[in-house]
Amino acid sequence: MNEDAVEKLLAEWGIVLPAGRVAAIAADIAALGPRLAAAPRPTFDDEPASFQARGRKASGP
Amino acid sequence: MSDPALWTLSEASAAIAGGKISSRELLDACLDRIPVWQSVTNAFIDLRAGQARLAAEKADREIAAGGPRSPLHGIPLAHKDMFYRTGEISTCGSDLRREWRADVTATVLRRLDAAGAVDLGTLNMAEWAGGATGHNIWFGDACNPWSPMRVTGGSSSGPGAAVAARMVFGALGSDTGGSIRLPAAMCGVAGLKPTWGGVSRYGAMPRAWSLDCVGPLARTARDCALLHVVIAGPDADDPTSLGAPAFAVPETPTHLRDVVIGVEQSLLESVSPAISRPLDGALKLLRALGAEVRAVALPRLQALLDLGGVISATEAAAIHLEQMRDHPDGYATDLLTRMQTGLAMPAMHYLHALRARVGLLAEVRASVFAQCDALFVPALAQPVPTRDESRTATAADVARIHGPLVRLTRPFSYLGLPVLSLPAGFDAAGMPVGFQLVGDTFTEAALLRIGMLYEATAGWYKHVPGVTAAPRQG
């Protein structure tokens, strides 16, 4: 996400920030991209609401 | 008789049940300590002594008529200033809510009221529960009772300080990325972050609803259990509360020979040498009590941190959008700039973070909890920082200072797991050092059982900060 995109998105929320701050937000989000790409992808069936259920029965020493 | 304010909640409860002390006498013991310790710690935002006296006298009448109706009957408590009570101000640590009055009462407060607990007032916190240190530019920093030049940890800063300074017997806090565990560790008390969904969040200020948990800070694990048993359980007013197995306060075991404690060696090795000795001592004691200590691998720590951060930033931004737009001057600059980042978070990042925890939790269960009952993790990897060195002015400061503080706590918030934070002793500077026992979903009783024997043997809860601490500055 580049600075223009961030600026437009924030404007949709009614928020106007100095250029330096917009650039910092864009940089923060850009830096997240590779880190999240390295994280495991959810599977096709994974739904947020069920996150505590899977595998629970199998736990315990 | 020793100063009743120095008793644990369990001891105070037993004394009330045995007719050895009244609720009013317990409250007076707390009120005797509060002026001195408030000047040191700034733990209270609003001390409500008058209504607490009335509540204590009512409790005494009820106890005289029919005995205590719960272990909390007549016990003075106070809570982080984010649990709403109808008609009362809840500041949430923010200038924007200095005069804001709630129109509902939090389920956890209703449950404590029903148990007969005495509410002594509201406690300091990081602004909007958005900080790991306890700094607050609007209400003043909460300061650590062991050294007021050092932070309490946050965001439940007032609860950590008030419980450690023996101003109250216990307090409710909230934990989104470490906000119960860090103050507990830095102030030398016990704290329980329950399983996500195990305690109602109705009437509690939201920080990030997919991560937020409400739980107790108290002097011991047993005290935490006495508080948790009252507040835990499903709530029709909170549709995200879960129908967990009923929690019962466990008995203190005589040994831990039936317990396996997992250790991720790289996490232990990542801590500062300044705090490694107390942590090694705690592990050695658990082993001496009979626990098997087994090496395990905690997978993907960095992913757990990053994904938890995405959820926290995005949900906080969504909650605060209108206020940030309309009242930007009502926020501390560092908090505002940090939350603005969440406004531009791509939806796919956020949804990835929510969905990925299904598989990541299953992975952690397979590699950790298939082999052990609890995972031993330091609460933080460094000594308790000073208030000056951890002050933040920009988003970059926050990343540099708060990032390392939550490195060992946020991953377990992301996974929604229960975690008990306990004291491990003190470092060479005399500051508390703490560790976490992390369990699988809804294993609070197992964690508390381990903690209860550990603390009874270690005895760290008997150490009380001295009044020689220098007065608070700033």
Structural topology:
The complex is a heterodimer of chains A (61) and B (474).
Chain A: H1 3-12, H2 19-38
Chain B: H1 9-17, H2 23-41, E1 44-47, H3 49-66, E2 76-80, H4 107-114, E3 118-123, E4 143-144, E5 147-151, H5 157-164, E6 170-175, H6 181-187, E7 190-193, E8 213-218, H7 221-231, E9 260-263, H8 265-269, H9 273-288, E10 292-295, H10 301-326, H11 333-343, H12 347-369, E11 374-378, H13 395-406, H14 410-414, E12 419-426, E13 432-438, H15 444-458
Parallel strand pairs in B: 2-3, 9-10, 9-11
Antiparallel strand pairs in B: 1-3, 4-5, 6-8, 7-8, 7-12, 11-13, 12-13
Helix pairs in contact in B: 2-3, 5-6, 7-15, 10-11, 10-12, 11-13
Would you kindly provide a written description of the structure presented here, covering whatever features stand out?
The complex is a heterodimer of chains A (61) and B (474). Chain A has 61 residues and is an all-alpha fold. Chain A has helices at residues 3-12, 19-38. Chain A is built from 2 helices and no strands. Chain B has 474 residues and is an alpha+beta fold. In chain B, the strands form 3 sheets. In chain B, strands 6-8-7-12-13-11-9-10 form an 8-stranded mixed sheet, with helices on both faces. A 3-stranded mixed sheet of chain B has the order 1-3-2. In chain B, strand 4 (143-144) and strand 5 (147-151) form a beta hairpin. Chain B is globular, with a radius of gyration of 20 Å. The mean pLDDT of chain B is 96.
Question: Could you give a quick summary of the protein structure above?
Answer:
With 61 residues, chain A is mainly α. Chain A has helices at residues 3-12, 19-38.
Pick out its properties:
heterodimer; A: 61 residues; mainly alpha; 2 helices; disordered C terminus; B: alpha+beta; eight-stranded mixed beta sheet; three-stranded mixed beta sheet; 13 strands; 41% helix; globular
